[in-house]
């Protein structure tokens, strides 16, 4: 073999080595993908995840299998994803709890919501609403604040449990509005709403999807939407921020993440597939019917920045509340 033939052979081998990883990346995904939901089957989070999973096959060419790993407020499923191989085949359909709140709420968790995950896409948020029993004389948030200050300690708010977003929303409201509404924790949203309907508690911060039937029937009065913008489900209801509590913003957000270290090319592939699924008319119709407000931006960077900001925001609220879970 001549010198030039040897040089050509080495160059060809080098080229092959460079092409192989590129071909491997292009082949993703080559097998089914598992998307972990950190809550039991049948709830809003599970339904949203399955709606998207069924729509992804056309873009990815592979089945996306939803697996429910509930427990510890979402920590069990989140830990499983954080420990998974960073190859794009294990994802988490995450919510505010495991991605922002639990790191401050639980004394010990085995993952970091920022460092343990690579953001893929933010799906959207489910607005909360401030609703009161009709016996409460306030017709809007400003009147509620005034009434609360004139009758200190009288008004109570129900939540689905210590550390739940429905609890922390009340803590944040008290901090920002200067009120002292007393927190009454329940074991779940159902019991909390039952006592609100019965007048045992004055108010609640609950998601719009759960509250809507009771608002329409007049069993509760809605005073405000807790997000920055108005809810598509209740476009005529002003936000809490519009009514004297500027900057108040509480919702349950939904985002997809992969284990930290997942290759950027794989993240991009997944991001594009989810973004395409969110543009499908039937998918949008289903998600919007559940009260979801779709995210204005779908880049991985946007979700990463959002999670960091939410972790910081809720750390202060949790500390103020004094809530701690094992």
At a glance:
The protein has 326 residues and is an alpha/beta fold.
Give the arrangement of secondary structure elements.
Layout: H1 3-26, E1 33-37, H2 44-60, E2 64-68, H3 75-83, E3 90-95, H4 96-105, E4 117-132, H5 141-150, E5 156-159, H6 165-177, E6 182-185, H7 189-198, E7 203-207, H8 208-217, E8 221-225, E9 251-259, H9 264-278, H10 281-289, E10 293-294, H11 300-321
Parallel strand pairs: 1-2, 1-3, 5-6, 5-7
Antiparallel strand pairs: 3-9, 4-7, 4-8, 4-9, 4-10
Helix pairs in contact: 2-9, 4-11
Give structural notes.
The protein has 326 residues and is α/β, with parallel strands linked by helices. It has two domains: 32-126 and 253-321, 3-Layer(aba) Sandwich (D-Maltodextrin-Binding Protein, domain 2); 127-243, D-Maltodextrin-Binding Protein, domain 2 (3-Layer(aba) Sandwich), CATH 3.40.190. It is 46% helix and 19% strand. It is built from eleven helices and ten strands. Strands 1, 2, 3, 4, 5, 6, 7, 8, 9 and 10 form a ten-stranded mixed β-sheet that branches. Helix 4 runs parallel beside helix 11. The longest helix has 24 residues, at 3-26. The chain is globular. The relative contact order is 0.18. Mean pLDDT is 91; it is low at 10-25.
For the structure shown, list the relevant keywords.
19% strand; single chain; 2 domains; D-Maltodextrin-Binding Protein, domain 2; ten-stranded mixed β-sheet; alpha/beta; 326 residues; 10 strands; 11 helices
């Amino acid at each position: 073999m001549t010198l030039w033939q040897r040089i050509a052979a080495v160059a060809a081998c080098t080229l092959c080595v460079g092409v192989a990883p590129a071909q491997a990346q292009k082949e993703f995904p080559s097998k089914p993908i598992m998307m972990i939901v950190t809550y039991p089957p049948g709830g809003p989070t599970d339904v949203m995840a399955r709606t998207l999973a069924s729509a992804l096959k056309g873009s990815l060419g592979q089945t996306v299998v939803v697996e429910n790993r509930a427990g510890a407020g979402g920590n069990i499923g989140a830990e499983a994803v954080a420990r998974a191989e960073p190859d794009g085949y294990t994802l988490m359909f995450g919510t505010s709890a495991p991605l922002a709140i639990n790191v401050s709420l639980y004394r010990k968790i085995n993952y970091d919501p920022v460092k343990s995950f690579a953001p893929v896409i933010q799906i959207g948020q489910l607005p909360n609403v401030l609703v009161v029993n009709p016996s409460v004389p306030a017709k809007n948030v400003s009147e509620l604040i005034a009434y609360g200050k004139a009758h200190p300690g009288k008004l109570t708010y129900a939540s689905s449990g210590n550390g739940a977003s429905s609890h922390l929303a009340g803590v944040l409201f008290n901090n920002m509005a200067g009120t002292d509404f007393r927190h009454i924790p329940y074991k779940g949203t159902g019991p909390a709403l039952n006592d609100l309907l019965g007048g045992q508690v004055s108010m609640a911060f609950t998601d719009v999807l759960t509250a809507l039937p009771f608002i329409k029937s007049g069993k509760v009065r809605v005073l405000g939407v807790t997000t920055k913008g108005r809810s598509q489900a209740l476009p005529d209801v002003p936000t809490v921020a519009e009514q004297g509590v500027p900057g108040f913003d509480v919702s349950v957000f939904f985002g997809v993440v992969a284990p930290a270290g997942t290759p950027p090319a794989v993240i991009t592939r997944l991001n594009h597939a989810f973004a395409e699924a969110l543009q499908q008319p039937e998918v949008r119709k289903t998600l919007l019917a559940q009260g979801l407000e779709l995210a204005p931006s779908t880049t991985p960077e946007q979700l990463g920045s959002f999670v960091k900001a939410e972790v910081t925001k809720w750390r202060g609220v949790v500390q103020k509340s004094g809530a701690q879970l094992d």
